[in-house]
Amino acid sequence: MQALTVKIRLFPDQPNVLRQLGKEYIRVVNHLTENAEQLGMFPKVTTKDVETTLPSAVCNQAIRDAKSVFRKIKKLGARPILKKPVYLVNNQNYTVSENTVAFPIVVDGKTKKTAFHAMTTKRDMELLNSIFLETADKTSTYEENTNNVDVN
User: What single string gives the DSSP state of each residue in 65-129?
Assistant: First the structure.
């Protein structure tokens, strides 16, 4: 199956929450690659081994990214220090609707799927609907079958 990139602009009520999550994600990736570089190999790591406030699905993505960075270290001979805050969610843990996007974040120590105001282009929503119709039942749209989360 071909990957689909969709541009979604977020308009969070509390942007500092997303900034903090992005910084934590980069901290985890940098920490794991630093440890791997010291060991000379990337150790077997699970989310239980990583101390972080990230949800486990996002932490798993950070572990995969750290492995990728470590492979680049071996290839290039120098360890890049990641600085740009990012927060990656995979296709299994987010929900998109016309006006919101929801993904897991940690709130008060518990993982909660949280919705943020968002804007997608009409073209991107049509792409999502067409792909959903190809993979799910042919009688409903993507928006009707996703778990929409109230932002209020």
Answer: HHHHHHHHHHHHSS-----S------TTS-EE-SSEEEEEEEETTEEEEEEEEEEE-HHHHHHHH
